[in-house]
Amino acid sequence: MKLTRTISETRSHIKIRKGKTRSLGFVPTMGALHDGHISLVKRSLEENEITVVSIFVNPTQFNEEQDFKSYPRNLEKDLEILGRYPVDLVFAPSSGEIYPEPNTRKFDFGGLDSIMEGKHRPGHFNGVAQVVSRLLGIIEPDNAYFGEKDFQQLVIIRKLAEKMDLPVRITGCPIIRESDGLAISSRNKFLSPEERKSAVRISRSLFNAQKKAGKLPVEELKEQTIQYVNKDPRLKVEYFEIVDVRHLKPVRNWTGKSCKIGCIAVKIGNIRLIDNMNFYS
Ligand code: AMP
Q1: CA–CA gap between residue 40 and residue 61 (Å, rounded)
Q2: Which residue owns the Cα nearest ligand 1 atom 14?
Q3: Nearest residue by C-alpha to atom 11 in ligand 1
């Protein structure tokens, strides 16, 4: 497994490894790797001859300086984990390598970014689009893998690839959960033992809502779900929305064929966790 820090060595390594015929799978991450990330890596290894993983904590997608500063970083440990798999290349650039000049590029996602995460984290998806478009331009993968854990991000990246005519197939991978149901996240390690116990309510609320989907009016289900989570004084729901999976438009009733998904963001102290679940009504 090779580690590269610069764009030029990354490109030349890929050129040699890829040749004319080998398919290349790419898994972009911000490091602090866990089983969620590894599920993406395994999928790429299954579907491609070459797999590239990037580790880059992207400053432009953080809307709070403190969140960026305290984001967990441990390259050595990440390399040790990735070394257990036949990953070809890990690209771990500096900020200056990715953004030699301040990146002022603005993207328009036609409203996909104005609700849920986009509404509560202004500028977040623009930052995600800046880094993902840059990384896809450097790596030029055939396939790129993203987690459904960040469902809105996945929809927006599909849109980005479509709008920019990028010759890459975007694959969404299922959420990996702890044994009690909590979606695995790099931020879980910041939870105190008490907060960790409380956090299980987040996925539980979604499993409960999934069972009730189609049986209660949408607004009532939303209200019940929010109340269930907020009942624990450690938790505070930032939003809970039920939207259609393609256009992320809020769903008002259960009629219509579109697949629906419930997306939630919850604050536990200073930690913010997100989760989602498909609702089949
Ligand atoms: P991050 O390092 O947080 O930017 O995540 C890198 C990729 O891993 C993103 O595509 C995430 O959606 C995905 N990911 C993070 N957590 C999980 C999880 N629990 N299950 C599946 N994918 C995940």
Answers
A1: 21
A2: 147
A3: 147
Total residues belonging to the chain: 281
Helix 124-139 to helix 7-18 angle, to the nearest 10 degrees? 50
Ligand 1 atom, smallest distance to 30 CA? 2
User: Please, what are the domains in the chain?
Assistant: 2-173 (3.40.50.620), 186-279 (3.30.1300.10)
Regions of the chain with pLDDT less than 50: none
pLDDT tens sequence across 213-243: 999 999 999 999 999 999 999 999 999 999 9
Cα(146) to centroid of ligand 1, in Å? 7
Q: What is the pLDDT of residue 103?
A: 86
Distance (Å, whole) CA 78 – CA 83: 8
* Residue 52 DSSP SS3: strand
To test ligand 1's pocket by mutation, which of 27, 40, 170 has the most ligand atoms within 8 angstroms of CB? 40
- Do the bridges between strand 235-244 and strand 2-4 make them parallel or antiparallel, or are there none, so unpaired? unpaired
DSSP state of 188: G
Residues touching ligand 1 (Cβ under 6 Å) are 29-30, 36-37, 39-40, 146-147, 149-150, 173, 175-176, 183-186
The CA distance from 199 to 193, in Å, is 10
Amino acid code (one letter) for 2: K
Q: List, in sequence order, every residue forming a beta bridge with 267; answer none if it has no partner.
A: 236, 272
Beta bridge partners of 274: 265
Catalytically active residues, by annotation: 37
CA of 235 to the centre of ligand 1 (A): 22
